[in-house]
Amino acid sequence: MTDLTAAPADLMIETPSWAYGNSGTRFKVFAQQGVPRDPYEKIADAAQVHAFTGAAPTVALHIPWDRVDDYAALTAHARSLDVGIGAINANVFQDDDYMLGSVTNPDPRVRRKATDHLLECVDIMDATGSRDLKLWFSDGTNYPGQDDIRARQDRLAEALEEVYARLGGDQRILLEYKLFEPAFYTMDVPDWGTSLVHCLALGPKATVCVDTGHHAPGTNIEFIVAMLLRAGRLGAFDFNSRFYADDDLMVGAADPFQLFRIMHEVVRGGGLDPATGVAFMLDQCHNIEPKIQGQIRSVMNVQEATAKALLVDAAALKSAQETGDVLGANAVLMDAYNTDVRPLLAEWRTAKGLSADPIAAYRASGYFEKIVAERVGGSQAGWGA
Ligand code: AOS
Ligand code: ZN
Ligand code: ZN
């Protein structure tokens, strides 16, 4: 049996700055009370998630949503609140120029503009000390024949090469894929295979980001995780959960069993070892629930799935698999999944000097009442602007 007092807790989860801002759907963005008015306040909210969970020490930024004049000052602000700045997320999807694509646009002027933005993001990483540049491209086509599928891949490769060449020694590209939306016929990076092919061509500092909401229904995500870990190219997760499409709901809310299966493959593939380089990030929007609590709950959901995955009796599983004991092997997994790990995690938190119940502790802290009083006119996360 694995020692539960250490491992799930050592898993560190990055929260996204945009989770703290107002968000919604194409139909309505609901303004909530107390939401941050600038990147400094988003980082302050992220620091609350870390303070109450002890497991969310970094916050991802999104450029331009989090553009500031002085990134060194923003980084110092984060440090003063006991958190750090994590991945820099580029945005080449919210400009009129990008209607037909960004780095894959048929117009070289637009491609240049998009690539320059990606290079600017690396400059920002230099200032914040960030390791990861997360690239998600909305690029694609809506109609057969609209553009040359192969030429778009060539343009993508060209832009990625230029950005890759600009990376510092410890910096990486995380190339995220998405099946559909906003493009409905072809996305230029629709799946993990396309992302992996580009990463392999680029070199070892290019890895795949698996956003759990970016697959066709029924896709076996843990298989993808196993394959990418095996290839040494699983760079990151964007965790969230979905019922229908890219719902960006709280991770573990729609299908906790899937999250457990994913974390089982992470454990199996050594992905909890920081040396493997897997970044565990949340990519969520809290459209109707309180945002800081939504992030705390999400961190706890990942911890619970991880704790269960660590409970899998590896020796018993191997033995059952090798002897062809189908039901026995399945039972080993299900025993772990069906274990209530909440008391164990509560014990771990107490041992670390944290509250056993982070949500209750946050609610009792008065932070929410304070930001409601102090902040008027909080900003939108960026979506649906
Ligand atoms: C978009 O669907 C992707 O999930 C992106 O990772 C992300 O949500 C967006 O770029 C915000 O940073
Ligand atoms: Zn994502
Ligand atoms: Zn998404």
UniProtKB/TrEMBL annotation:
Claim: DNA-binding is one of the keywords in the record: no
UniProt keyword list: Cytoplasm, Isomerase, Manganese, Metal-binding, Rhamnose metabolism
SUPFAM superfamilies the record matches: Xylose isomerase-like
Regions crossing the membrane: none
Gene Ontology molecular function: isomerase activity
Pfam families: RhaA
PANTHER family membership: L-RHAMNOSE ISOMERASE (PTHR30268:SF0)
Name recorded for this polypeptide: L-rhamnose isomerase
Organism whose genome encodes this protein: Actinocorallia longicatena
Gene name tied to this protein: rhaI
